[in-house]
Design brief:
It is a single chain. This protein is α+β, with helices and mostly antiparallel strands. It folds into 3 domains: 126 residues; 119 residues, Alpha-Beta Plaits (2-Layer Sandwich), CATH 3.30.70; 95 residues, Arc Repressor Mutant, subunit A, CATH 1.10.10.2840. 60% of the residues lie in helices and 9% in strands. Strands 1, 2, 3, 4, 5 and 6 form a 6-stranded mixed beta sheet that branches. A hairpin with a 2-residue loop joins strand 2 and strand 3. The longest helix has 43 residues. It is rod-shaped.
């Protein structure tokens, strides 16, 4: 019986399931089958054999279709041996065996179902255990390993991540009701050959993604955007796994900068200004208020217009003509708006210090819109 299994099924030829293991499983199943068939009064079926086989094969990572195929081969061989024995015995034996044929094949179905249930239950248990372990490993990356815990190198090995590579941290806001914030993302990431490990916590899920060397980050972000159900922040790309806690901070700030209740994904750039703002948001907010002054007290439309003009003017290196092309307006309109903006600043725009301050403030509010949420009052000046 075991020889047929090894001959006909590739997985078993790999010897993951050794001969002694396979023989023991077959002996147990045959013994229980014969015990049931030889006791006509018995109605209960002993499923110890198929249940044990299903659990063991799941732990051996045997493909379920191959295990069931081995069961079918074994039952067919078992039936053929019974039939040969009945013919050899002669008399009423063949007819008696044929009368039990339907019962034997019904028993085969019951055994196969029990094996399948045990296999799937074991796989589910392993997945839960794996998720718990991977979640704990992600916690170590985020919080830093304790003296008694695994080093980052060991964590990388257990997650099947490189220590030096291309990583992203994703933090996703869990929607009301507790549904998955990124349904189906793991499947999309696998298609991109991106490894992922997750930790669930109240209100959010945190993931560490390991990207292949030539994988486009834009494709990864597109996969995240395709399934996001709430606010999602993504860190800049980083190269050392022990920088994960820093990456998480970037991802959290990126998520917090998005409007509440809006399914959106944002990734922050890894710039000195971004790091400076994240390390001291309150100080940055005070600095922005001092630099922009009354601009922050303008009606939203006017404030937005002036800040957008300032950003375009700075990106154009002070060229009103180039800024006008970017804003689709006349260069004189740009000059007028910059003159109005200058009235709110602490000095003229031909002062390099004032330009440096303006550049910092405009970049800060562009990267962190929450800096505009609290501002000082000032004189409202309409903007054309």
């Amino acid at each position: 019986m075991s020889e047929l299994t090894y001959e006909n099924i590739d997985f078993y030829r790999s010897m993951v399931v050794g001969p002694e293991d396979l023989h023991a499983s077959m002996r147990l199943n045959v013994a229980h089958t014969l015990a049931h068939l030889t006791d006509p009064a018995s109605t209960a079926v002993d499923l110890t054999g198929p249940t044990e086989t299903g659990r063991k094969r799941a732990l051996q990572n045997a493909p379920l279709p191959e295990v069931l195929r081995a069961y079918r081969i074994s039952f067919r061989y078992f039936w053929e041996q019974l039939l040969d024995a009945a013919r050899e015995a002669g008399g009423d034996a063949p007819d008696a065996l044929l009368e039990t044929a339907s019962h034997i094949w019904e028993l085969a179905d019951v055994y196969s179902s029990a094996l399948t249930d045990a296999y799937r239950e074991t796989c589910a248990e392993r997945m839960v255990e794996t998720d718990r372990r991977r979640s704990a490993l992600v916690s170590e990356l985020i919080d830093g390993p304790s003296p008694s815990s695994d080093t980052v190198w060991e964590v990388a090995r257990m997650l099947d991540f490189p220590f030096l590579g291309r990583f992203l941290v994703v933090t996703a806001e869990v929607p009301d009701g507790g549904a998955s914030p990124l349904p189906g993302l793991d499947r999309r990431l696998r298609a991109l050959d991106v490894g992922a490990a997750w930790r669930a916590q109240p209100g959010s899920e945190i993931g560490v993604l390991s990207c292949p060397p030539r994988q486009s980050v834009d494709e990864v972000l597109a996969a995240v955007r395709a399934v996001a159900t709430g606010r999602v922040g993504v860190s800049p790309l980083y190269e050392r796994l022990d920088q994960t806690s820093r990456g998480l901070r970037y991802a959290q700030v990126a998520a917090e900068s998005l409007p509440d209740g809006t399914p959106a994904v944002r990734q922050l750039d890894d710039t000195p200004l971004t790091e400076l703002v994240m390390n001291n948001l309150e100080t940055t907010q005070r600095a922005v208020q001092r630099i922009l002054g009354g601009v922050l007290s303008l009606p939203e439309e006017d404030r937005t217009t002036l800040l957008a003009t300032a950003r375009a003017w700075l990106e154009a290196h002070g060229s009103a003509a180039e800024a006008g092309r970017r804003l689709f307006c006349h260069q004189n309109t740009v000059r007028y708006r910059m003159h109005r903006l200058e009235e709110f600043l602490r000095g003229p725009l031909d002062d390099p210090k004032i330009i440096a301050e303006l550049s910092m403030a405009v970049d800060a509010v562009g990267t962190f819109p929450m800096l505009l949420e609290s501002h000082s009052s000032g004189v409202i000046v309409p903007v054309r």
